[in-house]
Amino acid sequence: MREIRNYTINFGPQHPAAHGVLRLILEMDGEVIERADPHIGLLHRATEKLVETRAWAQALPYMDRLDYVSMMCNEHAYCLAVEKLLGVEVPERARYIRTMFDEVTRLLNHLLWVGCHALDVGAMTMALYTFREREDLMDAYEAVSGARMHAAYYRIGGVSRDLPEKMPQYEESRWKNARQVREMNANRQGSLLDFLEDFTERFPKCHSEYHTLLTDNRIWKQRLVDIGVVSPERARQLGFTGAMLRASGVEWDLRKKQPYAAYERMEFDVPVGTRGDSYDRYLVRMEEMAQSNRIIRQCIDWLRAHPGAVISDNHKITPPPREAISSNMEALIHHFKLFSEGIQVPEGEVYAAIEHPKGEMGVYAISDGANKPYRLKIRAPGFAHLAAMDEMARGHMLADVVTIIGSQDVVFGEIDR
Amino acid sequence: MGEIAFQFLTPWADGWFGALWPTVWLTLWTLAKIVAIVLPLMLGVAYLTYAERKVIGYMQVRLGPNRVGPQGLLQPIADALKLLFKEVVVPSGANRRLFILAPMLSLAPALAVWAVVPFSDAMILADVDAGLLYLLAIGSLGVYGVVLAGWASNSKYAFLGAMRASAQIVSYEIAMGFALVAVVMVSGSLKLSAIVASQQTGMGAALGMNFLSWHWLPLFPLFLVYFISGVAETNRAPFDVAEGESEIVAGFHVDYSGMAFALFFLAEYAEMILIAVLTSLLFLGGWSSPLGMFPDGVFWLLAKSCLMLFFFLWFRATFPRYRYDQIMRLGWKVFIPLTVFWLFVVAIWMLTPWNLWK
């Protein structure tokens, strides 16, 4: 008699639903998954090692490239860690700006996630709707930092510059005439804050559009409900964080439990799921978007009323103003030391974590007193989530694996680092 | 028109063909009619892809093709040319003969079914008495192309796609067949032109409201089942598990390129048009106008088919994809019982004094 073997499929790394470079070895019995074995490392860029050879401030742009759909949140985790080691006080306005951009980033991340998740499950229109809103938020990134993705806007001790008074404008082209360009620029006439305020007013309508398309859709529910169920106990044991943990029914949000930036003064709710399936994860993230919108709105109101410094005036850590260099000896020395040698960070070790859109993003840094980190370890939330792949997918069908990958919201920039 | 041409040509064609002339004439005339059907059909397929991209584009707040030609109207031609000039790559592990045969096997039935489809009272290639049976028989042959393609590619993804396609088509054939049985019952004929004719009489038609006597109203559940089964038969969203690109990449045609791929594509779209036309013929009165005051004509058939095709595109832009087992469940546990039940209802209805279809 011939031996019966399981059907093994090599899912990825070149697969439209692999979200980058996931390679998944699926052992299947017909369409049913017997074992799912995720292989990682195809996007390994040795970020942690590279950082050891760079001055503290130079490590920041590497953080953008970890989870490349929630850039500023990664920067925030790194800045928090270094600031904790240095014991530097961040100006209040900078803390609000960070809070606002963390939430803009959360929206960016969740919008991409819901679009791609729906695309994986077959509802392709969703992706184009969410990209329409993402475009506006990307423009906010561009206005504040000059880059649409890898912003490198946060600095150790604050943020690189104050919010701009002008928004970038669309220009006429072969495909867009003057009238169309005027319409497209209509909400870009004021400052960045005006633009974002306009966005927060528009967004609830878009958000309800997403709900209309997906939330009560029978097929969407059939595909998501009871797929990849994780119990609260198991979710804790597996090291889940963020929306994955909350969907399983554990109320845990670092923004509430260990407030950083200006979160202790923000009013927002933390959505929690009950069943721990893909549909709950979907609902939790959808509600998080609405809450983010609320937080952005509160930040805008505060920022309008409170002008001020956006970066620490301790010039041992932050560069002195340009004009001071030509008149002030001390400023010149600081400038020279900062740009040749970098920040001197006192000896010690530190762990700082933030509520990243994907979960708890932590940076563990050891300093031996030199101008660069002795060791930097990044706690990527997606790593723990992906590790649960086998457990979540076992017994489900091939199409459900796609749903589960989608609901885990994995990005390989952070998992492989 | 055929008669006139025949008489006009006979005097000088007799000299060349002699006694064979009537046979030669029949062949030539049939060929001309085939070309007259296939050519517009292929053009229809080409511009259905264009319409699909435009319609879905507008639904997705984007523009769709707009670079090749005015409004992107030449895009389908450009696509066809590109596919024509691309190499047909046969994977080294594939079964070469079956690999080449599969796309042809998929396209041939999709074209052959058009032989019995009437476009109006006079416009029909072969007015077969059992036209509906022929349709069902040839229509289900198309799946062999898909199964062979999946098998011959010798790829795991393609194989899964073929398995899914065969299971799906087998189960939806049944629901589709049952839905048609009721149509045959109330029309009293298997002949497509007679089925259309039977929808032109009745209470609604007598009042000048033709659309009330079409089959869609009394057979409403079957109308829905037939159309949805049609969507499933053609492997279109939300039933496109056989090629679900986010699961098994492109399913059965993942290894096909160039013209071989184009043939699958042509077959899929030709079948889409076929389902739309058949739904219009069987349930929406074919070429009869919705109100008595307008004249009947092929125009109405076209308009109804376009409406049904629009539904195909709308579904694709709106719905997530079903999972393979959920499709099976829908087919076996919902559609088949529903059609059987309505079949009984119709049968009993026909025996009561309120029979609409005397």
Provide an overview of this structure.
The complex is a heterodimer of chains A (417) and B (358). With 417 residues, chain A is mainly alpha-helical. Chain A is built from 18 helices and 8 strands. Chain A has helices at residues 47-51, 60-64, 71-86, 92-121, 125-145, 178-184, 192-215, 218-224, 232-237, 242-247, 254-257, 278-305, 322-325, 329-340, 381-387, 389-393, 398-408, 412-416; strands at 7-11, 23-29, 32-39, 154-155, 158-159, 348-356, 359-367, 375-379. In chain A, the strands form 3 sheets. In chain A, strands 1-2-3 form a 3-stranded antiparallel sheet. Chain A is globular, with a radius of gyration of 23 Å. Chain B has 358 residues and is mainly α. Chain B has 13 helices and no strands. The radius of gyration of chain B is 22 Å and the shape is globular. Chain B starts with a helix and ends in a 7-residue tail after the last helix. The model of chain B has no long low-confidence stretch (mean pLDDT 84). Chain A binds chain B through residues 7, 9-10, 15-17, 31, 118-125, 128-129, 132, 213-214, 217, 219-220, 222-223, 397-402, and chain B through 56, 59-62, 156-157, 160, 237-238, 240-241, 244-249, 317-326.
List the helices and strands and how they pair.
The complex is a heterodimer of chains A (417) and B (358).
Chain A: E1 7-11, E2 23-29, E3 32-39, H1 47-51, H2 60-64, H3 71-86, H4 92-121, H5 125-145, E4 154-155, E5 158-159, H6 178-184, H7 192-215, H8 218-224, H9 232-237, H10 242-247, H11 254-257, H12 278-305, H13 322-325, H14 329-340, E6 348-356, E7 359-367, E8 375-379, H15 381-387, H16 389-393, H17 398-408, H18 412-416
Chain B: H1 2-17, H2 21-59, H3 75-85, H4 96-112, H5 131-139, H6 142-152, H7 156-187, H8 192-198, H9 203-206, H10 220-233, H11 258-283, H12 298-318, H13 324-351
Helix pairs in contact in B: 1-2, 2-3, 2-11, 2-12, 3-11, 4-6, 4-11, 6-7, 7-8, 7-10, 7-13, 10-11, 10-13, 11-12
